[in-house]
Amino acid sequence: MSDKNIIEFVVNELDLQPHPEGGYYAETFRADDITNPQGRYPSDRSTGTAIYYLLTPDTFSGMHILTSDEIFHFYLGDAVEQLQLFADGSHCVVEIGRDIMAGQRPQMVVPKNVWQGARLKPGGAFALLGCTVAPGFDFADFSMGKRADLVASWPDARDMIAALTRG
């Protein structure tokens, strides 16, 4: 089966839809329990959510920030490189994948209020990930980054920011 056919199969089988940040997703879990620790959110949130998330060579996860912690889980395909931008002006690029000997991790945590974006490593055909968010994901807690603003604050990450933002 070709990579294109695998991608089409995964999209259809898991009922994935385009995600506003890029890639494809389907929510698979939303806890019934609610929380709003110290009134941090403008309204109550689910205690947790989970999605499938698919990246392809023509998609990427655009730079965005959440007000909850997010855990990425690697399921299938090729490795992903993820840029994380921290409030102190530092940044790191991590690899999410199955090759632990090469420094990849099958699970990666992005703390709340850390800018993040991801793409397939060069040459990759697709990656199927899972994302778990706690407290649960709500689009009200999601912001997309603007290239100029991010580059101004993290100039050492300019090239990766440019690759993970849209014009």
From TrEMBL:
Xref: SUPFAM superfamilies: RmlC-like cupins
CDD domains: cupin_YML079wp (cd06121)
One Pfam family recorded for the sequence: Cupin_5
Domain DUF985: 10-144
Gene3D superfamilies for the chain: Jelly Rolls
Descriptive protein name: DUF985 domain-containing protein
Species whose genome carries this gene: Thalassospira mesophila
